[in-house]
Structure formats: structure tokens, C-alpha cells
Design brief:
The complex is a heterodimer of chains A (286) and B (276). Chain A contains twelve helices and no strands. Chain A is mainly alpha-helical. Classes of the chains: A mainly alpha (286), B alpha/beta (276). The structure holds adenosine-5'-diphosphate and magnesium ion (MG).
């Protein structure tokens, strides 16, 4: 009976009863910890346990496989004291500055150029040969040339990363434009769209789903190139830190460096996916 | 067939003066890998303000090709489109189009879709909003103004597309089998909507369909097109256009005249129902 009396005001009142609150929490919990996520967490935990056990049993030498404790200690050490006179934060920041300045330049040039190329076969014909030639080249092959031209500092790296990001972005923009249905362009013209408006208000947003795919490819490739470039020629950055540690057989630093690299990459990809989710809610629904 | 009846209907309406749009002897031949396809031959028609013209014909007879020429998406091999005295060669805001698929911009809300043409014409924001709201009300979509197209049903999207074309205030709206992809019930309610909208706005409409009944329930004039090459087979004023405004649709549909007219049109469409 009492429950019945409570039911009526419950629909109106906005304050959840303790019972409701725990039910809500349960729903939120279920949404965050889906079965699949729990399995993922489990398999990561299993690897971690395996790692701990193997290093405890001393199956392999510490130099090849440092213990989780040693890696954690190395992390705390470089977090407090930095690595070779530069703080961990600065190493990461150096890498990210290179990555983002190159990426930004690539986005603002490759995307407009790709959109125009997608629209005009003549402009595409003028640009495509260069893209097709350099895209399959391993970036480190022409990095040597860039270092000779621009030196070992950030300039050569930014140009290298710019080139790495440019091709996938340009190609995704071209293919995005090619995939726009003719009726959409026709429809926009019949609604009075001028050429510039057609580009900014119809062609560009039409390509957003493709562009985000390109962005993810580009950031992955740029990141790989960044780490490789820092290993070839640099005096700072997370890639350099790992290479430098290897010269002194500091496998604990190598381990923590690689873990940081991996987590950073996941973070970058996650950020782009989040942006995509916010900006392209219609993706796959038309 | 009762020829006197049909002949009578073919007389032009004397109450109208200068045509709004003229199709002058349109020919179209497609050329694809050394093969020529004659899609349209000698299509001529005057369209007056407030006309609701239905183009009826089997699939492949050139209806869409004719619409594309009218819209300016495609140029005729011969002949021309004249709108109020000047040649129409490129798509512009004078000729609105509603496609078979709603063709809304998926990144814009329904409201923003309807506002699109006004934005292109640099209409101030407040006016834009008001106009779009009015047309959304006309197609009974006010409640869905802030949703994205993919959140609406097919019929609702098509109504939004009609509102978008209306908001632009073109001289004529071309529609290419706009209800063809909808289920029968939705199609009927859409026809009803469109009839009301047309009465309210008195827009000229050029409507393509392969559904004889749809043509009879909407138009003021019916052009029957036949294939190979696409040409006008029959050009008839719809005898029911007046009663559609006053009588119950159900009653019209069941009347002997209607059934007879339907049969007459079906017989004029080459190949008959089996082919389309
Ligand atoms: N782009 C094209 N190239 C070659 N032939 C075409 C093209 N578009 C349509 N056709 C041909 O023209 C004829 C008329 O087509 P269409 O206008 O689409 O007819 P409908 O809309 O009445 O079905 C068909 O025979 C079709 O195959
Ligand atoms: Mg067609």
C-alpha cells in the first residue's frame, strides 16, 4: 500500500528516492562496464599478471624483461627527475608540438586542395602525380634529404610530418567529393547556392565523414613517422628518449617510453573519434 | 475510345494569358560509348502560373531526362526552355526541385534545411527563421524542426524537402516521382498534403509519376509520355481538377467517370501495366 502512495508523486518530483538513485547508478554502471569492456580489461590484466609472474620467477634476465616494479620505479624517476636533463613532460610536449604543428598545417592545406581536386578533374590531374609518387615512399627515405636541407632541428621534422599527413588527408578529401551524389550538388544549385557557398556549405560538410577517416589515418601515420624521425635524428622527444635509453641498455626506460607512446596514440585516436561522434552524428545513417 | 470527350479536354484554357514557362521543341539524344539513345523527341508545352502538370509514362520513357532539362542540370540536344521570356540553361533558384529521394542535407536540422535557400539569398536571420517556421507548419513538421533528417521517417523527410523547395519561392517546383519510394498509406496522405499546399500557394508544379491514379488525383493537366523516343502521346486537361477541390477524394475515386478516365490513360501508356 505504501508503495502505491509513493508512486504518484514520484512521477512529478524531480528528486530521486534512494532506491531510484541506486537503480540509476546501476544503469550508468552497466553502460560504462559493458561485457566487452570487461573482457578487454580482463585480458590486459591477464597479460600484466603473466608479466609479473615471469619476472618474479626470474625466467629471463632483468635486462631483457624488467619487472613491473622496476618499470614503475623508472616512471617515477623520470617523472621527478626527467630524462637527460629534460623533464618527461617536456619530452612529450616536444613530440606533440612537432606533431600538432605539422598536422595543423596539413589539415589547412591538404583538405581545401583535396576538395578542389575532387571537384575539378583538371586540377586533380596537375596534383595527383606528385601525391602518387611520394605517398608510397617510406618517410625516412626522404627525411635524410630534409635534414640536409633544413637541419636537425624541428623544421625538418615538421616538414616530414607535414608530408606524412598530407597524402592521406588529400586523398580522403578527393574521395569524399567524388562520393557526393550528383543530386545533392544539383539540389543545392536549385536552392540558389553560389560556387563559394557550394564549397563551404555543401561540399565540405558532405565530405566530413570521409575527412574524419582521413584524419585518423593521417594522425596514425604521422605519429609513427614522428617516433621514427626522433629515433633517427633528435635530442629530445619521447622517441628519442627510448632510443637513447637503448644505448645504455636501460630496458626499464624503454618499456615505460613505449607504454607512454602507446597510450598517447590511443588518446589521440580517441580524441578524433570523439570529435567525429560530436560533429558527424549522421555518419552511416544516410 | 470516346474521342469527342478527349478532344474537348484538349482545348487550352482561354482564361490564361502569357505562359510562365515554355518548353520549345525539346530533343535529347544521349551518346554513350558510340551508342546513341534518343531519349526525347519534340517535346513542347506551355506552363502557366498555378498549373499542376503531371507527366505520366512508363519507366525509361524520358521523364527524368525532361525534368533535368527543365531544371538546367542537363542541356537539350535541340530546343530550349524559356522562363518569363528568358532562356533557362543553368540550375538556379527560379526552378525548385524535389527529388525521388528526399535529398536533404544530413548535417542540417530540418529547420536549417528549409532555411537553406534563404541563407543563400542572404535573407536576415530573423526573417529566415520565421519563413521556415511557416512552411514547416504548412507541412506539419513544426515539432521536428530541430531534428536531423536521419531521425525522421521517409514521408516526413519528403515533406521537409517540399517545404524547403517552397521556402525558396521558385517560379515552379519540379518533382520526380517524389512519393514513389513511400508505402501506399503514406503516399495517399502525402498526395493530400501536396494538394492542400498547392491550393494554398498556387505554385506551378511539374510532377512526374508513373501512377495513373496519382496523376488524376493531383493535376490540372496530364501529359502522357511514351518511350523510344520519349514523346508526348496525350495532352489532357484533368477533368477532375475542379471536383478535387470540393468533393471527397474517395467519392471521386469510386465514380464511373474516374474509373473510365483511368482506363483511358492506362490504354494510352504503351505496353500497359505489365511493363511499368
Ligand atoms: N546519362 C545517360 N546516358 C545514357 N542514356 C541515358 C542516360 N540517362 C538516361 N538514359 C536513357 O534515356 C532513357 C530515358 O531515361 P529516363 O529519363 O531516366 O527515364 P524515366 O525517368 O522516364 O524512367 C532511358 O532509355 C535511359 O536508359
Ligand atoms: Mg525517372
Amino acid at each position: 500500500m505504501k508503495a502505491d502512495v509513493q508512486k504518484t508523486p514520484k512521477l512529478v518530483s524531480s528528486d530521486p528516492t534512494p532506491n531510484e538513485r541506486s537503480a540509476n547508478l546501476k544503469i550508468v554502471f552497466q553502460q560504462i562496464f559493458t561485457t566487452e569492456r570487461l573482457i578487454s580489461l580482463g585480458s590486459v590484466a591477464a597479460l600484466f599478471i603473466l608479466w609479473t609472474v615471469v619476472s618474479k620467477l626470474q625466467v629471463v634476465d632483468d635486462m631483457f624483461l624488467p619487472s613491473p616494479a622496476a618499470v614503475w620505479a623508472a616512471f617515477l624517476d623520470i617523472l621527478q627527475n626527467g630524462y637527460k636533463g629534460t623533464s618527461l613532460f617536456m619530452h612529450i610536449a616536444e613530440s606533440m608540438i612537432r606533431l600538432f604543428s605539422a598536422f595543423f598545417l596539413a589539415v589547412v592545406t591538404a583538405i581545401p586542395l583535396g576538395l578542389i581536386s575532387g571537384y575539378s578533374p583538371k586540377i586533380r590531374a596537375a596534383i595527383d602525380p606528385f601525391i602518387e609518387f611520394y605517398r608510397p615512399l617510406p618517410p625516412l627515405a626522404y627525411y635524410t634529404l630534409l635534414v640536409i636541407w633544413l637541419g636537425i632541428e624541428n623544421e625538418s621534422k615538421i616538414v616530414l610530418l607535414y608530408l606524412a599527413a598530407f597524402a592521406p588527408l588529400y586523398i580522403s578529401a578527393v574521395s569524399g567529393v567524388k562520393q557526393i551524389p550528383a543530386d545533392r550538388i544539383h539540389g543545392a544549385l536549385s536552392l540558389g547556392a553560389s560556387k563559394p557557398a557550394l564549397f563551404t556549405q555543401v561540399i565540405f560538410p558532405s565530405c566530413l565523414p570521409e575527412l574524419f577517416t582521413g584524419l585518423r589515418t593521417a594522425i596514425g601515420f604521422t605519429y609513427t613517422t614522428l617516433v621514427a624521425a626522433e629515433m633517427v635524428a633528435a635530442a629530445s622527444g619521447i622517441g628519442w628518449m627510448v632510443l637513447d635509453a637503448s644505448k645504455f641498455l636501460r630496458s626499464d626506460i624503454i618499456f615505460i617510453g613505449i607504454i607512454i607512446m602507446g597510450l598517447l596514440a590511443m588518446l589521440l585516436d580517441g580524441a578524433i573519434r570523439y570529435l567525429e561522434y560530436r560533429l558527424v552524428p549522421w555518419k552511416g545513417k544516410n | 475510345m470516346n474521342t469527342s470527350h478527349a478532344l474537348n479536354l484538349m482545348k487550352p484554357d482561354p482564361s490564361k494569358s502569357a505562359p510562365l514557362i515554355q518548353l520549345k521543341n525539346i530533343h535529347l539524344t544521349y551518346q554513350s560509348n558510340n551508342k546513341k539513345v534518343e531519349a526525347l523527341r519534340g517535346i513542347s508545352q506551355d506552363i502557366y502560373e498555378g498549373d499542376f502538370i503531371c507527366v505520366l509514362g512508363p519507366s525509361g520513357c524520358g521523364k527524368t531526362s525532361l525534368l533535368k532539362i527543365l531544371a538546367g542540370y542537363q542541356s537539350a540536344t535541340q530546343g530550349e526552355i524559356i522562363i518569363e521570356g528568358h532562356k533557362h540553361v543553368k540550375p538556379n533558384a527560379e526552378v525548385g526541385v524535389v527529388f525521388q529521394h528526399p535529398n536533404l542535407f544530413p548535417w542540417l536540422t530540418i529547420q536549417k534545411n528549409v532555411e537553406f535557400s534563404l541563407k543563400m539569398a542572404r535573407v536576415p536571420k530573423m526573417v529566415r527563421r520565421k519563413t521556415a517556421a511557416d512552411f514547416l507548419e504548412m507541412v506539419e513538421l513544426s515539432k521536428f524542426a530541430n531534428m536531423l533528417p536521419h531521425e525522421l521517417s521517409g514521408g516526413m523527410k519528403q515533406r521537409a524537402a517540399i517545404a524547403r523547395a517552397l521556402a525558396n519561392d521558385p517560379k515552379i517546383i519540379l518533382m520526380d516521382e517524389p512519393f514513389g519510394a513511400l508505402d501506399a498509406l503514406t503516399r495517399e496522405s502525402m498526395q493530400e498534403h501536396l494538394r492542400k499546399i498547392w491550393q494554398k500557394t498556387n505554385k506551378s508544379i511539374f510532377f512526374i509519376t508513373h501512377d495513373v491514379e496519382e496523376a488524376l488525383l493531383l493535376s490540372t493537366r496530364i501529359l502522357v509520355l511514351n518511350a523510344n523516343p520519349g514523346r508526348i502521346e496525350e495532352n489532357i486537361a484533368n477533368p477532375f481538377s475542379q471536383s478535387l477541390l470540393t468533393k471527397e477524394i474517395r467519392d471521386i475515386r469510386l465514380s464511373n467517370d474516374f474509373v473510365e478516365m483511368k482506363e483511358f490513360l492506362v490504354s494510352k501508356i504503351k505496353g500497359g501495366p505489365a511493363e511499368w
